[in-house]
Amino acid sequence: MTERSSPENPPVTVSDAVQHALAVTRRGCEELIPEADWLKKLQKSEATGQPLRIKLGLDPTAPDIHLGHTVVLNKMRQLQDLGHTVIFLIGDFTSLIGDPSGRNSTRPPLTPEQIKANAETYYKQASLVLDPAKTEIRYNSEWSLPLGSMGMIQLAAKYTVARMMERNDFHQRFTAGTPISVHEFLYPLMQGYDSVALKADLELGGTDQKFNLLMGRHLQAEYGQEPQCILTMPLLEGLDGVEKMSKSKGNYIGITEDANTMFAKVLSISDELMWRWYTLLSFKSEAEIDALRREVAQGRNPKEAKVMLAKEITARFHSPAAAEAAEQDFIHRSKGGVPDEIPEVRLSLGEGGAPLGIGAVLKQAGLAPSSSEANRLIDGAGVRVDGGVVSDKGLKLGAGTYVVQVGKRKFARVTLGG
Predict the structure, then answer these.
(1) What is the pTM for the complete model shown?
(2) CA-CA-CA-CA dihedral for 284, 287, 291, 292, to nearest 10
(3) How far apart are CA 87 and CA 57, in angstroms?
(4) Is 75 assigned to a binding site?
(5) 53-58 and 85-90: which strand pairing?
(6) What are the GO BP annotations of this UniProt entry (predicted)?
(7) What is residue 233's three-state secondary structure?
């Protein structure tokens, strides 16, 4: 038991279980607002045996999830494992509006068909992190559609335009003379109303969602509820260690990528970035991570720590056996070996059975997106045929079967026929 106090509050005894829950909540987070209220909620939950309601709202604007998206999902799982109720809220109604967060133009809304397809894929992938048996799945159309025009007007009366314009993206667009549609003001209101409908105790989101999360606190108070606390999580840096993880920047690891690729990509990150990934992505305790960090500081090879992280992440999205196999595959490749299973590709020779240029082979085999990119790879000594580095962009391959390799991870067994 621990005593916590402040000048405003008398000493209060906090149990070890609550202290642990608070530490789990704070791990890796950007902000916990207000922490004192969250502590009270945890204590009340312990005293009554009533789980807290923890909400994560996601608009299914894209169907695929990468590791960056799982930072918030990991936190949900950690809180779920403490016994609290996790609500995976699919914003099928708010997707029709389009989230203006961080945007400098109006976002075109998705069609209901796109939303439905994306939501199904998104939840299936999120279930690789969350425990599906302990996850409450909700759609905000449940309460948003019945609200109707009268309810929408009453809701809009609970917030001022002046407060709305304090939001950074709205303020910047207004100052720049960039159009802001009235319906965009409805998005944070509707997201906040979700918290009212769900009676949320805690809402999670990225740092870019802070305004919307605070709206939930405001509206809950307006509707006579105990306001939720909010927890913002940082944006995860991608493989380059600089930019946030993003498919458009090519510095991502998709959670549905094959085990060998996932394992090798994790091993490619820098030693410095590894510790940030440990904090945000690993399920190891902070004490375990601190102990591992000390070992590395005292001389242990950091690659061993990185291999442990790569195996943990790969096992989460595949299986422990797949992670072990991926490690062996990586070792095999690093020694110049060819994986046991590689794509088989059959290509036609040129007109009259003429040999096919290496650039065309790479493009047609799916190892390079274009002939110009194929030439760039050859210039960088990144192409091998049957183990030998290709240095001649004019190389032509006749009839036969060849093992063609691009970089460390791309292989194809190419058969050229008539």
Answers:
(1) 0.70
(2) 20
(3) 8
(4) no
(5) parallel
(6) tyrosyl-tRNA aminoacylation
(7) strand
- The alpha carbon of residue 172 and the mean position of all alpha carbons in its chain are separated, in whole angstroms, by 27
Q: Which of 235, 265, 228, 305 is nearest to 69 (CA)?
A: 235
Query: Could you tell me the two tokens for 322?
Result: 């797949």
| Interatomic CA distance for residues 255 and 68, integer angstroms | 10
Closest CA to 189 of 166, 173, 211: 211
CATH of the domain at 348: 3.10.290.10
Question: Is 224 contained in some domain?
Answer: yes
Buried-state track 373-388, b at ≥16 Cβ within 10 A, e below 16: ebbebbeeebbbbeee
Instruction: Identify whether residues 11 and 95 lie together within a single domain.
Output: yes
Q: What Rg value do the Cα atoms of the chain yield, rounded?
A: 26
128-168, pLDDT tens digit by residue? 889 888 899 899 999 999 988 888 888 877 877 777 777 77
Domain count within the chain: 3
User: Hey, is 301 helix, strand or coil?
Assistant: coil
One-character DSSP codes across 30-87: SEEETHHHHHHHHHHHHHH-PPPEEEEEE--SSS--BTTTHHHHHHHHHHHHTTPEEE
253 found inside a domain: no
Lowest mean pLDDT across 256-265, 333-342, 374-383: 333-342
pLDDT digits (tens, 9 = 90+) for 287-342: 999 999 999 999 989 899 999 999 999 999 999 999 999 898 888 776 666 776 78
